[in-house]
Design goal:
57% helix; mainly alpha; 3 strands; three-stranded antiparallel beta sheet; Arc Repressor Mutant, subunit A; 2 domains
Length: 140
């Protein structure tokens, strides 16, 4: 059996150079991330200091606002909730939010001239699509 001698100092030097290369790469990535973070903060500060007007009113009014912002475009309950989340509207009990939205939409659709109609996607589908009717139809 042949033995090979490896200089331990040479092995340590190789390991240190490899670690230095990794750390320099990490440093460059960290610098890029810091630049991105600073730019993001600069872009968001004016928006955070001047928040958009808060939607007000009850759930029916908020749902009508969401639907009227998307006229003629069918939306599922899930899409409506996502839009409300994007608007900053959160439910106190998120577990019941879909049911509350569903019931409120059904009540709105049952009212004459509400501008809300419910369309089933398919006969076997449990979800529904809600859309705002054009203003001309509302007056009928």
């Amino acid at each position: 059996m042949a033995l090979t001698y490896t200089n331990p100092h040479e092995q340590s030097l190789i390991a240190l150079r490899q670690e230095l290369a990794r750390r320099l790469n990490e440093e460059e990535e960290a610098k890029q991330r810091i630049i991105w973070l600073r730019n993001s903060i600069t872009a968001l500060e004016p928006l955070a200091n001047n928040p958009p007007p808060q939607p007000h009113g009850n759930l029916s009014q908020v749902l009508c606002a969401v639907l009227s912002a998307n006229p003629g475009r069918p939306m599922t309950v899930c899409q409506i909730r996502q839009t409300m989340d994007a608007m900053g509207i959160k439910f106190q009990k998120p577990a019941n939010a879909a049911a509350v939205v569903n019931v409120t939409l059904r009540r709105l659709a049952a009212k004459p001239n509400s501008g809300v109609k419910i369309e089933a996607l398919t006969p076997l589908s449990a979800s529904m699509t809600v859309s705002s009717r054009p203003h001309a139809e509302r007056s009928n």
